[in-house]
Design brief:
homodimer, about 230 residues, mainly alpha, Tetracycline Repressor, domain 2, elongated, DNA-binding
Chain lengths: ~230, ~230
Amino acid sequence: MNYKEFKKLYASSSRDIAREVFLNNKDSIQIKKEKTAVNNLEKIFDSVFKIASKKGFQAMSMRDLSRETGMSLGSLYHYFTGKEELLGIIQTHGWSIMKRNLKQISDTHEDSLRKLRTVIKGHVFLSELYRPWFYFTFMEARSIQPAQLKVVKAMEGSTQQILAEILGCGEERGVFMPGNHELTAGMIKAMQQEWYLKRWKYRKLNVSVDQFADHLVGIVEAFCLVRETG
Amino acid sequence: MNYKEFKKLYASSSRDIAREVFLNNKDSIQIKKEKTAVNNLEKIFDSVFKIASKKGFQAMSMRDLSRETGMSLGSLYHYFTGKEELLGIIQTHGWSIMKRNLKQISDTHEDSLRKLRTVIKGHVFLSELYRPWFYFTFMEARSIQPAQLKVVKAMEGSTQQILAEILGCGEERGVFMPGNHELTAGMIKAMQQEWYLKRWKYRKLNVSVDQFADHLVGIVEAFCLVRETG
DNA sequence: GTCTATACACAGATAGAC
DNA sequence: GTCTATCTGTGTATAGAC
């Protein structure tokens, strides 16, 4: 599967995402007309990502956000009870996007090697599709609330676990080499993150997401696949 | 070379680092007595790293820093003209530590394979030795000044360049496989960063810095070394 | 060199007109 | 639903005593 095919299956518009957030947070959102609310939420998220990617969420003032969205301070506060809650909404939804999709991707029933490829590439493609959400949740993970911290740590662990398990199963079947699979899984995650953390670098190098994902798979296979005895 | 040996060659105490900073910034530091200044600078840096690793530099207030160092607000401002300058001092010095040491490490004259190993492991060991500086410079890179941004981008590029060149030379000599060396170099950097960005994970897994570095070298060799024809 | 007290700007948040 | 005007706390930074 390449990125284009992946996109067809998994893409949802930023409008659809805004709608999900609206439905999940009807309690704290004072605006009741769906069309208006969804519209403005979309503007708000776009603006937060834009500003926060430059100076971080903490350094973003509500006045910055007001300027960028074109909405007044008063209006903004009808969409969340405070800046803290805005952060929470974005983070929670970011993790839910990842969780839902990664689960779907890793539920494929294939042989070990194919499954490894699917999961590795799927994660990269997903981060490309929802890049602002991935970038934001990673960079703002420090300023997370204790309640949500648990979720985040669990998430980090579980995605690594998925990879480690695939490597373990493959080893049992004689497809992959024995080794410290947790450690290898961590390395794979690091390379996956590279894509959304340093995207500017690869744009400059003219490297597409497909090339990047294939390169990554190549590295992992070279290290993990059982070498044929000459 | 393992970490213990590396440490003997490259380590300098946080006191020595504070002294370097003092000598480099005599103009903006109002305290003239070396012993006092170095002592307090050491306290200041330790405290900044401690607080910033939890909530980020932007979110750290000068009152936080005052509390943590045990110094008064007034005293702190005798060591830098403002919070912005404090950030600049730390970042500039962080990059200079990296630059100086990485240059020294990569100046070794060995064959391609040995050089690759030396440079990869050296970077990991260096990040272990000066972890707070590495972590801080990475995480606060966003809030960097335009003037320093140039330095940072150049640094990121040049360390990647070093790796790419080693791979290129090795390819010419028939030691390494042909391929997109820039891309591979980026992947290696990503895995190196993993060590100082997610150190808690590896502490939990009981993975030592030597194990981590060896694992990383193993992955790179499996991918880059020319396979023996069977 | 270090402290306390304070000036001043700006942040987050709200009230109430339209 | 959106706006303007405003409250109140907190942040950075400084003045001046010791």
